[in-house]
Amino acid sequence: MTPVDKSTVVKALHDMSAYLQIKGENAFKTRAYELAAERISSLTEDLAVLVAEKRLTTLPGIGEGLASKIEDLVTHGKMAALEELKAAYPPKILELMTVQDLGPKKAKALFEQLGVGSIDELEKACQDGRVQALKGFGKKTEEKLLAGIALARRTMAAGGRKRLGDVEDQAQAVLAWVKQAPGVIRAELGGSVRRMRETVADVDVIASAPDAAAVFKHFLTFPQIAQTIGSGESKTSVRLKETDLQVDFRVLPDEDFASALHHFTGSKAHHIKLRGLAQDKGLTISEWGVFRMGGKSETPAKKGKAKHEGAEEKLPIVEEKDLYALLGMQFVPPELREDWGEIEAALAQTLPRDLVTLGDIRGNVHAHTTWSDGRDSLEAMALAAKALGYTYLTITEHSQSANYAGGLKLDRMKAQWDEIDAVQEKVKGLTLLKGIESDILEDGSLDYPDAVLEQLDVVIGSIHQRYSQDEDATTKRVLRAFDNPHLHIWGHPSGRLLLKREAVPLRIEEILDKAAKKGITIEVNGCPERMDLSAENVRKALERGIKLVLSTDAHSVGELKTHLPYAVATARRGWARTGDVVNTKDVKGFRAAIQRG
Ligand SMILES: [Zn+2]
Ligand SMILES: [Zn+2]
Fold this sequence. Notes:
By secondary structure, the protein is an alpha/beta fold. About 40% of the residues lie in helices and about 15% in strands.
């Protein structure tokens, strides 16, 4: 076991990049750290082995300089270059980068000219009017920063909730660790991680074993534990390094496992309603199991220990489905346990039985390559998509107005088509579709003339530049885009970045009505910072018969794989069936399904 693991290295590389940006290093240099972080994070090989065998430089984008810094950290527990940077700035300076609309250039100016080194100091400077006096800031920026500070504070106040995508790997690592403990029979993640909520407050892990003490002993040797915050006979809570995630770990006898797993999966609202139903049947449900009140029992108990009149009889719950069966219901998958009508549907036996699954997805949709702001070449993306078992990949770079992301001007688009054709020649068994992710411009028009758009297989329209429009203007902008007959898919509809940027203000019902009428397909973007369309709005879209596409918005080969589960989970939370999703079809079916009208 090395003293330092992958996530520590990834975080250090991100921090290096952030400090260097504030320092004002050129984008090429800071980007190199981001790329390296991406490489390390998607590494399938053991990092310690790579370091020990001095093979870091065999990874694309990692040169001698980066390799020695990573080796430094892995072998000595510290990256000297990062420590130097940390010492040169106030301890909370990176906090500034969590404020919406505050990029590294502004952070640098604020620090150098006003000595601002934390969110609190920034707020004070805004309130004193010192920020608007700076060159390049102004009154409007100051107002935006104050709004951004408020959002950042709300995020912190939201009980320190974290994005699911930021903690899931670590949660899975804990689970894998627990499964190796002596005597463990079953182990699962519970809580909002199991329900695949976009953000989570903590992680529940539930295991069954005859000897809880031995399992806890093993658990506490998990290398990423920073602190033990409580331990009892059946529960231990710890905080993890890097993510500061709290893990509540419970060990029970195997006969109590399913009830406990169900209990600690939640949601509270789902459970409250279930308990009401149970009561009507003379049952009580708790984390300890399902009990029948002896006096109210209609049929004599066949199983369980004999009890005297009026006492509780414990009913066997081997799996969660037994609990639902006792209540006369269909099994409710974890993602649906929100009291959004799933209990009524499960009682009526009308809960969808064919919810979309990851295995149903046949085409990988919405990919960026080095032609715009992607990190891997077209050929690398095609080969990776094929290796993952997909039968088609849609290449959808940014459009020409997107200077910030290397959007394709017309001449480059033509050149890109030639390369797509050339790669298609080489990569058999995967169909490459020519597409674009076109900005929806301020007036709702798309970013190319119709004569160009009509030549593309897939046109995604997305809002990237916000132009500070209000709800009415943004709504009309989207409605107008739907009038363009060449638009197939509305991309990452709300524009939210979880815990970072609010959704654009939209009259969503009005927009969904028009999408249904016009035959627009709506994207559920699987980027873990987006998970957009939200599950709530997926429900609303499906009620209107709107088709969905579950997309990756991949900017690297790694994201072709890692993003999709979040799109699938969000769609499932919104009750999407396989047939509602256009990229569960083969390439011919997909192309037909996204056509308008
Ligand atoms: Zn986009
Ligand atoms: Zn995109």
